[in-house]
Amino acid sequence: MSRSNLFGRRIHIAGSVSMDEGVASEVNVRRAREVISALVAELVVLGANFVIPVDAEKTRGDGLPICFDWLVWEAVSAHIAARPSGVPGPFIVAVKHHKNEEQIPPAYADLWNAMRRSDLVEIESAAHWNMASKRMEGQARHGDVLVTLGGGEGVLYLANLYHDAGRPVVPLNFPLGPKDTGSLRLFSYGTSAAGAARLFQPAGNVPAQTLLNRIESHSKKLVDDEVRDIVALLNALDRPRAFVVRLLDPLHADFEAVENYFSDVVRPVLEDSLGYRMTVVDGNQAFDHARIDQDIFEKLHRSQLVVADITGARPNCFIELGYALGRALPTVLLARQDTQHPFDVATYAGLHWTATGTPADKQRALQNHWSAVRRRPAIVPTEPLIP
User: Fold this and answer.
1) What are phi and psi of 297, to 5 degrees?
2) d(Cα 227, Cα 383) in Å, to the nearest integer?
3) Do 50 and 11 contact (CB within 8 A), yes or no?
């Protein structure tokens, strides 16, 4: 059985329900919750991971929760036994702040205590003075795909964070709030071909606009059909992008060694083992912009990983490496053994590879290096003016 494209990808489900029961009826809210619960169960089976906030649970006059976070926690906990083996973790990244432990709803205290002690759960605390935005930034930093429903300015803020990072945004159109904001606004924006293409990029030939229209919700649509269509869209999303900075001049003395290393080692590790899609701007592909330099930096800016090989010491490689480090993108620095580095680069831990040895050994070395540096902090961390 082939592995789902969602295997190991972190899904972040975010949104809220209007307090006005005339805007978000009890029937529509209950239906949306049923879909989300079933969707999460299916995603667990497919090997997806999750980003889930930890917070209080506010309710409306009819007793229904405003947000979906604890519903997601419940669903992942109930179906954890169905998670496939071998999924790279953590299963859940929980984003909280220093007041959360006192705000856990009593109904979920046992669930949270069990999950927080699990090795499958990684906890990040966003204990900053600007709580809401900092928690959303933490959530967006860990998520691979944002799924929205309802909500307002917070959902739009999250969507912009994901878009700027080059990560897909999938809006659902459940009638849970005003039509001119939140997920409904995003869905309406995506009904045009240009808008849909900015929300997410499919891997196949089906246009983003078509995929978005397929998940349109309405009262006569069965819950199972809702879930099937959403999962199909998520499965159709293009893989996260790894931008490649490397020697591309075939006349350079080091070109053949670099080309062989990327063919035998880098591509199999990135695409086959880690699930990325390599992006190389070398003039042999269609461009999104009129200028190649603009295309390079647009794709570099919105990549989830940068692999920079500075063999040959080409000036453009250092410019692109500097941009990636300044943007705090996860960056793997490579160079052939005995490559001479400038001082600023020499102090940055990288992998020095050789042209000798078996591809399997070199692939293993690259994977071990990635495991060691994947959580490397930014060179200059962001610090609040007033902690």
Assistant:
1) -75, -25
2) 41
3) yes
- Angle CA 197–272–335, to nearest 5: 100
Q: From CA 367, how far away is CA 270, in angstroms rounded?
A: 9
Structural domains in the chain, sorted by start: 10-236 (3.40.50.450), 241-373 (3.40.50.450)
What is the mean predicted confidence (pLDDT) over 221-238?
Answer: 97
Residue 99 amino acid letter: K
The DSSP output letter for 210 is: H
Ramachandran category for residue 151: left, alpha or beta (phi over 0 → left; psi -120 to 50 → alpha) = left
Pairing of strands 92-96, 121-125: parallel
Give the residue ranges of DSSP H helices in 59-152: 69-78, 100-103, 109-116, 131-142
pLDDT confidence tier of residue 387, bands split at 50, 70 and 90: low
Note the pLDDT of residue 2. Answer: 72
Long-range contacts of 336-342 (CB under 8 A, 24+ apart): 336/254, 336/257, 336/258, 336/261, 336/311, 339/310, 339/311, 339/312, 339/313, 340/313, 341/310, 342/318
Round to whole Å and give the CA distance between 367 and 351. Answer: 10
Residue range 270-306, pLDDT digits in tens? 998 888 999 887 655 554 544 557 778 888 998 999 9
SS3 content of the chain, % helix, strand, coil (to 5): 45, 15, 40
Distance of CA 56 to the CA centre of its chain: 25
Give the whole-angstrom CA distance, residue 176 versus residue 184. Answer: 8
Task: Output the CA–CA distances (angstroms, integers) from residue 185 to 15, 20, 159, 304, in the order listed.
Answer: 13, 18, 11, 26
**This prediction's pTM:** 0.88
State the virtual CA torsion across 109, 126, 298, 169 in degrees, nearest 10: 20
**Per-residue burial over 336-354, b = 16 or more CB atoms within 10 Å of its CB, e = otherwise:** beebebeeebeeeebbebe
Q: Per DSSP, what are the bridge partners of residue 76?
A: none
Per the listing, tokens 């978005």 go with 212
Query: Which of 277, 236, 234, 242 minimizes the C-alpha distance to 50?
Result: 234
Percent of the chain with pLDDT over 70: 92
CB 69 within 8 A of CB 103: no
